[in-house]
Amino acid sequence: MSFWNCSDSGSIIRQFAMNVIWVLVLILLVFSNGHVSNGVSTNSSNRPEEVKIGSMFSFNSAIGKVAKVALEAAIEDVNSNPAILGGTKLNLTMYDANFSGFLGMVEGKHFRHEEYLCYMEFLKCLKNQRRTLALKFMESDTVAIIGPQSSVTAHVISHIANELQVPLLSFAATDPTLSSLQYPFFVRTTQNDQFQMAAIADIVEYYEWRDVIAIYADNDFGRSGIAALSDELAGKRCQISYKAPLDPQATRTEIMDVLVKVTLAESRILVLHTYPAWGLDVLSVGHYLGMMDSGYVWIATNWLSTVLDTDSPLSSESMDNIQGLITLRMYTPESELKRNFVSRWKNLTTHQMANGPFGLNTYGLYAYDTVWLLAHGIDAFFSQGGNISFSNDSRLSELNGGNLHLDALNIFDGGKLLLNNILNVNLTGLTGNMRFSSDRSLFRPAFEVINVIGTGVRTIGYWSNYSGLSVLPPETLYSKPPNRSSSSQNLYPVMWPGQTTQKPRGWVFPNNGRALRIGVPNRVSYCEFVGEVPGTEMFKGYCIDVFMAAVNLLPYALPFKLIPFGDGIKNPSCTELVHLITAGVYDAAIGDIAIITNRTRIVDFTQPYFESGLVVVAPVKKLNSDAWAFLRPFSGSMWMVTGGFFLLVGIVVWILEHRLNDDFRGPPRRQVVTILCYTASLTSILTVQQLSSPIKGLESLRMSNDPIGYQQGSFARNYMISELGIHESRLIALNSPEEYAEALKKGPKNGGVAALVDERAYVELFLSSRCEFSIVGQEFTKNGWGFAFPRDSPLAVDMSTAILKLSENGDLQRIHDKWLMSSACSSQGAKLAVDRLQLKSFSGLFIVCGLVCFLALLVYFVKMVGQYIRHYSAEEPESSGSSWSSHFQTFLTFAGEKEEDVKSRSKRRQLERDPNRSNDGGMESTSAASNRRCTEMASNRSVSFGSGV
């Protein structure tokens, strides 16, 4: 036969030859719908006496042996309840998928193309034998299939189910890709692995891990599950850093080879996604290799909880191999229905324990509910007038030229109606609420998170897609608004591998014998920050000391080697250094590396350990403090207001207003505030910048066309071009402080620069000994320096924590003072400090003020003498005995009186000297005049020098 000509597939094809007949028997038996008749359909009544359904799974597997008992119990319970199908019975035929080694092989790998061609050739050669076997088993009309158990098998059979329109209800095939539109007749009656992987991703995020290693079966089931895990981790900025696929038929030696490679990787978070049949073998090898010691984390998917529930108690050796592991279990809420079934379990399994007792796992609960789900769907199908009928599909007979005789298979006419009714079922079963969401997944999926401790397990929390991780059962949270905030995510403490309760860090340095290659800028200037020690391979400087101090705070040894980056002639570009991390040349980079946007897109930085930002430096000159220095602070209009205000509140004004205004007759302290206003204002204005520069800041620099200097290798160049719009022809690279000073002294007209743009850290060192230059304007960027690591490197997080500790304990400041303590000129150059104003600075002001006061007093004195002569000379007869002292005292008394009192007294005395003056005009009464006279006398006696101030 031509089959044996496929020599390239030798041994595999021979295995196919031994098993292919049984494959055909199984497929044709399961999907034969109606008796073989040339296009004739088989019909039955609306409510037949029985409905035939099939099932296929591996009876001897951890899942299958439990599912078999559960399915039989469910069929019995449904058939004994006439309220479900109205008297119609379910007739279940179960087929053991393990009777053929071929299906086990299918679960292990996909066919290669050449294998498939040889297999199809062999089918053609066996057409006569195949037809005989097919006719033997086509005795029933099957309307639905419960199964298959394997996700790999489900992929194959779902294509046939689509063609024959027979619903497949699988209680164990968890591959997420089976939910696609490609398989409309596949109905998953268990939890989708997509949700299990979401739960694992939430656990990884909860413990603040970043990288995991995936160990998985290399088939549809394993690859699809790990692909889903990768997607879920990516949404949380985590990743699978290493994938370790295993052949499902891998030997212990092959498993060991794979796990040895895992031990050499960086991550210690291991996710094991495999089958119950050989998952324990993987863990046994891991225990042998020391991978169950402290520092490792194993997260097993729900295959491990299935083994523990089914085969418990495990041997002491097996339990030792899984101590401290975390695993998931599909969550089924407690209920009376579930408790009753659990209590029945021992009786149900009594006659099936030939190979030893076994427990009830969650797959058994879902298998039981699957039968009830199908029964309710069939009941609704009949209620809507559905009939069980089949018809031939002409397309099947045309496949492969008719050589396969697929015309023996028929289409279930009511398949779509039955499928819709199954998807619309809403019932409460052993597993809780059984209904489907819009994406055909079970409603509100949830998992238990359990920890293997001692001889058993402990539930440390729950996960649901409604509220994430919680120590409360999911159903208690459904009545509350969903809350996925980090503060609401909780799990109980875990006993990790190695019998420790301390959360593992989750990673180590790879065991490949190579120290970290850390790039360091080989600077030629400002070596106070970082510089290579001449003649050695060592570095020194502020940045190096910070790095070493942080490394010493790490809870583990850090092997590293510092490698200089740059030619030693000019300062290197830190941006180029950062790019070499992404290229794999360096494992990290330390030094004066500014944290800027473009760099953060390609690497991760630590917490900033030094604050900096771009500033403008320009030459400045001191303003001379001459006699008219006081004029500089104010503009002309300001001086007019200030001068007027000065005259109003000055002492001379007080003197002028003293005799006329009651407000100026109070105690002296009432006038202190007024007198001091100008003094305070002028002082504050004069104690500002006393250095002058034609460049006032960033804006004036941008608007000019003068050349601008920048430090060679600094990001300032790209920033000025891209962000400030300065043409690159204006930019001049400078390599040292000496070149800075020379270019600034020359100026833009003599081949130098008008100003310099650089980071404040360098500028402060530059200005510490060069007081003829200064920062002008404000700092116009804010950034810091940090150490660079590859994206998602856990070392970046640990180093950030160490830097924060250095800041908190004061070591960071001490390192700063050691290397960057400024000299005496620093404060003057960096902050434009002022000289103290001398007495000569105000001499002109004092002269003007003195002249104004003298003129005002002179005018006032002349006026006062004239008033005294008019009012007092007429009242007091000249006496030869009068002395100058008595006249002076009288004058002072006169000056202290209010002017209106003087005028009133003078008017009264004039009236007294004129007795003939009419009293009409408002003369005062005698008593009033007497009272006023008494008051005036008392007032005159109380006046003394300095009174009334």
UniProtKB/TrEMBL annotation:
One GO MF term attached to the UniProt entry: G protein-coupled receptor activity
Transmembrane feature ranges: 638-656, 842-862
Main location: membrane
Disulfide cysteine pairs (residue numbers): 771-825
Start-end of Basic and acidic residues biased regions: 899-917
Alphabetized Pfam families for the sequence: ANF_receptor, Lig_chan, Lig_chan-Glu_bd
Compartments, as annotated in UniProt: Membrane
CDD domains: GluR_Plant, PBP1_GABAb_receptor_plant
GO cellular component terms, A-Z: membrane
Role: Glutamate-gated receptor that probably acts as non-selective cation channel.
Similarity section: Belongs to the glutamate-gated ion channel (TC 1.A.10.1) family.
Name of protein: Glutamate receptor
